[in-house]
Amino acid sequence: MVSYRKWIVVVLLANLVMGCAATQLAISKRNLDVQTKLSDTIFLSPTSDRNKTVFIQVRNTTDKTDFDLAGPVRQSLQAKGYQVLNEPDNAWFILQANILSIEKTSNNPASSPFGSYGSALGGAGIGALAASAGNANGRQIAGTALAAGAASGIGEMLANALIKDVYFSVITDVQIKERSKNASNVTTQSSLKNGKGTTTAVNNVEDSRYKVYQTRALSVANQANLNLEEAEPMLQAGLTKVISGIF
User: Would you say 32 and 223 are in contact if contact means Cβ atoms under 8 Å apart?
Assistant: First the structure.
């Protein structure tokens, strides 16, 4: 009988602790927080007003095809006095960007390396967190709830367990070409695979009148129980600010 009472006390204490933790999370993460940064700094040469022309090309190779950066970046550069052209050959700058990844995670991607332009992506999804209600721990909690009864307040604990610390991150590769007065030789090295056993090395040398800069942009939104629809406008604003801020 004594051991049973101790078990009930443990259940009640666990309920209290978990409820407090969930409440603290909900309060501390009640406001949407967005962080955006570049992997590498880019310094463009000072440009006269007559050369403030840019061609913009933004691709989205994720499954979230509605996420748009081209429009906001265009408007931001126009507000800075740049003329956006439809022909790259006539522009002093060529801005190219590719949205590589839009992910939901349970940890802060901004606190980990996110690579530089063209490097492989890392990171883990939130699936394990979202599925916790169905794993062994979740079933054990449910069993404890039944044993302790309604008086234990276990229902409140289960409700609080639905409060998640959610991060949405967007990773974008950015390349900027700036016209140069002098032509230079650009060498491109490629390794092409032909089946599993054959690799062909290709070196391509061409003349170029562009200086090329590359960087990667990461924007992270965080809030309790955040969804993509709420995070998207702020993620777009953060990426637009850092990308257009290069000019």
Answer: yes
Closest Cα partner for 102 from 169, 19, 173?
169
Q: At 83, which helix (H) or strand (E)?
A: strand 83-84
Beta partners for residue 214, in sequence order: 175
Answer whether residue 133 is part of any domain.
yes
DSSP 179: E
Q: Is residue 201 part of a domain?
A: no
- For the chain, how many structural domains are there in total? 2
Are both 223 and 170 inside the same structural domain?
yes
Question: Is residue 198 situated within a structural domain?
Answer: no
pLDDT tens by residue, 68-124: 999 999 999 999 999 999 999 999 999 999 999 999 988 888 888 898 898 888 654
Question: Which segment of 11-20, 138-147, 222-231 scores lowest on mean pLDDT?
Answer: 138-147
Query: Is 196 inside any structural domain?
Result: no
Q: Is the pLDDT of residue 201 over 90?
A: no
> Are residues 55 and 119 located together in one domain of the fold?
yes
Q: 195 and 8 in contact (C-beta within 8 Å)?
A: no
41, 123, 148 from 101: Cα distances, Å? 21, 10, 44
Yes or no: say if 170 and 218 are a contact pair by the CB < 8 Å rule: yes
Mean pLDDT of the chain: 78
